[in-house]
Specification:
The structure is a homodimer.
Chain A: E1 2-6, H1 35-47, E2 54-59, H2 63-71, E3 81-86, H3 92-106, E4 111-116, E5 120-121, H4 125-140, E6 144-149, E7 160-163, E8 172-178, H5 183-192, E9 195-205, H6 206-215, H7 220-238, H8 248-255, H9 262-267, E10 273-278, E11 282-283, E12 303-311, E13 317-328, E14 333-337, E15 341-346, H10 353-362, E16 373-376, E17 379-387, E18 390-397, E19 401-402, E20 405-407, E21 411-419, E22 422-426, E23 429-433, E24 438-441, E25 447-451, E26 457-465, E27 474-477
Parallel strand pairs in A: 1-2, 1-4, 2-3, 6-10, 12-13, 13-14
Antiparallel strand pairs in A: 4-9, 5-11, 6-9, 7-8, 7-9, 8-10, 14-15, 16-17, 17-18, 18-26, 19-25, 20-27, 21-24, 21-26, 22-23, 22-25
Helix pairs in contact in A: 3-6, 3-7, 6-7
Chain lengths: ~475, ~475
């Protein structure tokens, strides 16, 4: 039994909370952990904590960020995470094929549970029961077993799975996959009783995933040839030694594949598909409006998360954890504030945030790419001020953690300890730096910052130099094997 | 000839740009200098740069901030500024009386030009011409000479001055002062041709101001007694030695005065009032909507000042000099962003910002009181990060300036030079600190920061301590005579 977490999504619908390098699955606003971390924890409930590893499918541009993010989660300290890197984004059919081929090479009879990394799911009894039924069906038959949510409203934002005859908690034969419906159609689906929201989760034997993709003929000869090629290339790359997976040869192979979703390429055409209908607590956290679940409305229907004030306003959502946002005389407005960017839109335009993302993309806006706070395996850093020739960061190092032993070619760094005690390595010397004290790392010096205390270490770092990019770093030794 | 600048206004209509300690008259957004600085420069054109001093009427709570602000203006380096402090706010009648009594004590025949500090006025020919006519009239007659703007639209936000017969550029007898009209009335005023916007400027002999206030009987016996008392107390305080002006005796005297405007107390009832109608370029910068003048609209009527993007939006004003603000699908909205607070309101609610200020006041919100950037005579400082036990500031010291020689009882400070060269005094030692270097000021050490360079000096200051209030400062020596 294997678990694959699909973490390729870019999550532009959550800007400004999400960024290119910190997509929706890395957001922690909906609970104590991020969506991807919650997904991994849920997967472990099913495959068991003694399972050798969990595979994460991720695009090459996000690999470092996702890896840093997951390394920083203490509850995942005992999980071996294996990264299956898409050399270039090609939608879900190539991504799932790559994952299935990798599992197949590892275990020809392996059963795999594929889970989107950016959903919010309650991990209670319903979750475990549903997955148990799905796994049973995937074990005893050669079917693609999907999970369908019993619809609680005529939602037009999801695709639906139509069962021949539906029954909650059993694997039912699927009659059809249907695209996002209009409002009337959605109403009919809900009334019919055998239509379910497509959760995007899939359980099947790895070889069945590949076989069904290869066999799908529904969309004509060209598509069929494309499907065959996807499976062929996925197996070729899966057969490569680990080190060659991200080679240019692998990139060139993957680049030739069609951009197609697994739903379109296989599920819609296969005759061996089952759905397990479920009533578990599930949300795809589809837009910024999901933030509404985090606060009760006031008497005028305003919901405020963070530091907001709604004066003579109605039905307005203010999300502003770091700064003060005041609205006056507005109605049904959505204001989402972060340390470097604010979005203002009517609530009913929340689905269209990609229009802002597209416009910002044309301007190559830095606010699209990186958040001001970056997670690292050893803690976090945040840029608090930048100017010509300098940058000021607030660095938090978690207990018993240390950064890599490193040097920089074009910047010097001052570290001022503002909370806790730092153990600083400079060359062959170790220095203990107490709260209120500082230390200086000149250009070229090997240095390392470590927290051996029981609580967080807070440092203000002032970088000075003619180039201050994150890529000016030489790592000599790293607890997290980064290079 | 004397100039008095009325700088008592709190300017809550400009929040979040203005703050209690940085009101509208200190804003520099409308030009190269602040409104008050521009007013002083305009006054000097009329009274001559060789005039001994200019008097600034200011409330006691704003004295330090206004003084620091004006000390920092290089173009005012050769003006002696004299501060007439209102011990407690009592509206404009007591404030003008205090100023007039002070000038009268200095020069019994003195003519005084009273100017609001928070207007935007073009200092060209029309300004000089208008004031020359007003001064001529105030010199040759014992009248209160007001300045009235020829209305360019049926504005309902201003009071009007009705001349018996109006003629631009001449001192005309006034028939009446009228309150802010409704839209129809305003239309009639504009059509009539002898109604003018009340600019709030006044030219008269100091003794005439006091005499007319004393004589005004229009509002009954109680008001008349109040007026007499205002003049009596103003003369009492003006007769005090400088050092006693802010004594508790002076406070107690002033506190007994009625809160009344000079318009209500005197101008509306006096029969010796003239108006000089003028077409000079004038704005009272009455609300945040005045920001619209700073940018041309795009094809959809959106105006963006700073870093904003308006997607599928119309008629929207974004003012955001420091951060990114994106609007999506909104219409006629006003978004004003500062480093610590953002306001969102429909354009036609711009006049109601005080409702937000009132609401924030109830919560004692820190964003109401202080701006993140504070002007000092030697430059500026800005808080870039704060946490338990520490504060990070970016300090800019202008060329040939230095802070006071000071020490702190409860905090230590690290200074990292990120641009320029600092001359740091520590005890009896002077240290030159170059870009990229740092220096440490332990608790209790006497220290001073100085810039002898030709360009700005930028410092990152990290304060560490159990108390970090601005009032933990002992000054031993100060170029600006602050204690």
């Amino acid at each position: 039994m294997y678990a694959v977490i699909l973490a390729g999504g870019s999550g532009t619908r959550f800007w400004p909370l999400s960024r290119e390098l910190s997509p929706k699955q890395m957001l922690s606003v909906f609970g104590e952990t991020s969506l991807i971390c919650g997904t991994i924890e849920r997967a472990r409930m099913i495959i068991g904590t003694e399972a050798p590893s969990i595979d994460i499918v991720v695009g090459v541009t996000l690999l470092d960020e996702i890896r840093n993010h997951l390394l920083a989660q203490p509850q995942l300290a005992d999980v071996a995470l294996n990264y299956l890197v898409e050399p270039v984004p090609r939608n879900t059919a190539p991504a799932l094929a790559l994952a299935a081929a990798t599992i197949e090479a590892r275990d020809p009879d392996g059963i795999v549970m594929m889970l989107p990394s950016d959903q919010l799911v309650d991990s209670g009894k319903a979750w475990r029961g549903t997955m148990t039924v799905a796994i049973e069906a995937a074990t005893t038959t050669d079917q693609l077993v999907t999970i369908g949510l019993v619809p609680t409203r005529p939602e037009t934002g999801y695709g639906y799975i139509k069962a021949v005859v539906g029954a909650v908690g059993t694997a039912c034969p699927v009659e059809a996959f249907v695209e996002k419906p209009d409002a009337d159609t959605a109403q009919r689906y809900v009334a019919a009783g055998n239509y379910y929201w497509n959760s995007g989760m899939l359980v099947a034997k790895a070889r069945v995933i590949l076989a069904e993709l290869e066999a799908a003929q529904g969309t004509g000869a060209e598509a069929a040839a494309g499907n065959e090629r996807i499976v062929e290339v996925a197996r070729q790359i899966a057969a490569l030694p680990e080190a060659e997976r991200l080679s240019s040869a692998s990139y060139q192979l993957f680049e030739t594949l069609p951009k197609v979703s697994f739903d379109n390429a296989a599920l819609e055409h296969s005759t061996h598909v089952a759905v397990v209908p479920t009533t578990m607590d599930w949300s795809d956290v589809g837009s910024l409006l999901s933030l509404e679940d985090l606060a009760e409305p006031d008497v005028s229907g305003n919901r405020i998360i963070g530091d907001g004030i709604a004066v003579e306003s109605q039905g307005t959502l203010i999300y502003s954890p770091e700064r003060l946002v005041a609205t006056l005389g507005v109605k049904d407005l959505l204001v989402v504030d972060t340390s470097d960017a604010t979005l203002v839109a009517p609530r009913d335009r929340a689905q269209d945030v990609r229009l802002v993302v597209n416009a910002l993309s044309k301007q190559d806006a830095p606010e699209l790419r990186e958040p001001k706070v970056s997670a690292r395996p050893w803690g976090t850093w945040k840029i608090v001020e930048e100017g010509v020739g300098f940058k000021v960061k607030e660095i938090v190092v978690t207990p018993d953690s240390r950064l890599s032993l490193q040097s920089h070619e074009r910047r010097s760094e001052h570290w001022v300890v503002v909370e806790g005690t730092a153990l600083v390595t400079q060359g062959n010397t170790e220095i203990q730096v107490e709260t209120g004290q500082s230390v200086y790392n000149p250009v070229g010096t090997k240095h390392r910052l470590e927290n051996r205390g029981a609580s967080d270490l807070h440092i203000i770092e002032i970088q000075v130099g003619d180039y201050l990019g994150e890529d000016d770093i030489i790592r000599y030794s790293d607890d997290f094997e980064r290079t």
